[in-house]
Specification:
The chain is mainly beta. Helix content is 14%, strand content 40%.
Length: 174
Amino acid sequence: MQTARLSQSFYSHLSGFFSTPFIFAVLFGLAALFASGTVRSQPTLNGVDDIEIRTQVTGPLNAQTIRITATPKSSSGGKISMYTAALVNGVGLFFLDESGVWFPFVDCEKTPIVYFGSSGKSVDIDVVTEPVDLTGLAGTMIAVGFGVNEAPPLACADMLQWQRYTLAHIIGAP
């Protein structure tokens, strides 16, 4: 099992954005799909589930950790890039990188990945590693997806085109 190691907590990277008086303009499909409510909890590719998600949340909302285990499946057998996104209410769409830093979504050229390698392997994504008060992030949607291609920008476009992503967790949801 691979582990996406995080050096900082989810909350510490995003909490500063709440005082920022602007919303990031997001032009690509994932943000639009989040906003339209069409993020599928069971995405399919040619009628077959293409990503298995297990989310482990520990502690109450004011002292919570979040770990997502994702197992992408691809019939191509090629290399994949895996992505973790968070849509923060009233702020914007952010993507997590391999070191645990969140970046605002700009486009597929600049979208960070949490894993690159073979499909079919389980990957642990530690979204929040230490108990943190996530009350201010209640309603934030966290999704995981993957694209098939050796080049991460092309893998991002592949993920969006074939809708290879799923909603993994909503912070504060039962």
